[in-house]
Amino acid sequence: MPVSRPIPRESSSKRASVRKHGRATSRSHFGATPDLSTITHRRPAAASDVARVIPMDLITWLRQRDGIAHRADALDAGFTVSRIRAAIRTDAVRRIRARWIALHDAPSDLVHAAEAGGQLTCVSLARRRGWWVPPGAAEQVHVHLRPNAATPGIPVIAHWSASLGPSRPRRVLARTEDALAHAARCFPLDQAVAIWESAARVERVSIDSLRQVRWRDAVARRCAAHLRPGTDSSLETIFHVRLSAWGVRLRMQVRLAGHTVDFVIGTHLIVQVDGWSFHSSSADRTRDIAHDAALRMRGYTVLRFSYEQVINRWWEVEALIAEAIARGLHLGPS
User: Fold this and answer.
1) What DSSP character marks residue 65?
2) Does residue 44 surpass a pLDDT of 70?
3) Closest listed residue to residue 119, CA positions, set 80, 165, 185
4) Domain spans in the chain, listed from the N-terminal domain onward
5) What is the pTM for the complete model shown?
6) Which fold has domain 230-334?
């Protein structure tokens, strides 16, 4: 028959310790009672504490996305609706329309695009992505809007058009192809082609792939037809587009006398165009003078023009080249 054993009674000091800390503690696995004096209690987090802590995580996440993001992306990243609302309520982030959240120091061009309900495009996207931008281009933000979108309530340059690719409503930057199509409408042919070729270099897009896009308007198709692989600068692109209508033979990036020249008109007229960063050292200048001399010794005529001349004083460049062609300097010795 089982023998009952008396349950040991806790001492009064232990009971007092339990009452002091407000709850009883079970004995440890080995039978010893934990030292309740070492136990600390955390008070429940107040709502204000939660509001102060949570936005910091959202702020870090936004900073990794240029300071602005679609609310649906924030939800996909694990931020709950209540957390996003807490960040907005405490002014840690701002709400833009119904779908975007942004830091207060987010780039203004991206904020304007979101406020307009569209995507950054044309020359505005070119600035952000580091493509070549025509000198004197207006600073006003260009925005891509759906064909049925409402007129923006803020001063922007709106481009209403259907996207050339799949719709991306969660992106604040337009597709490269859409931005190039808009630039073709906004700028003269030579400058538009320069933007296109600069975008191809920066985004590492092949010229062939751009030509294969089903461009919807004639100006974009004309830009695609003028694209040439191998151009080193937008200045060379502008020069090539302007002279291609002359009907003379024009070659780019030709190797002569041990070095590459920018253009050869006909067979013997060489044109070199120098960009902003040209002649960074006296050694570069010395090399160019020696190369020009070697070309002249071989019967070539060499003309060299600066960025300022090609962009802002084209009439001077055009007149000199026309005079050289009229004298037959583009032809070989008879």
Assistant:
1) T
2) no
3) 165
4) 48-106, 108-227, 230-334
5) 0.76
6) Endonuclease; Chain A (3.40.960)
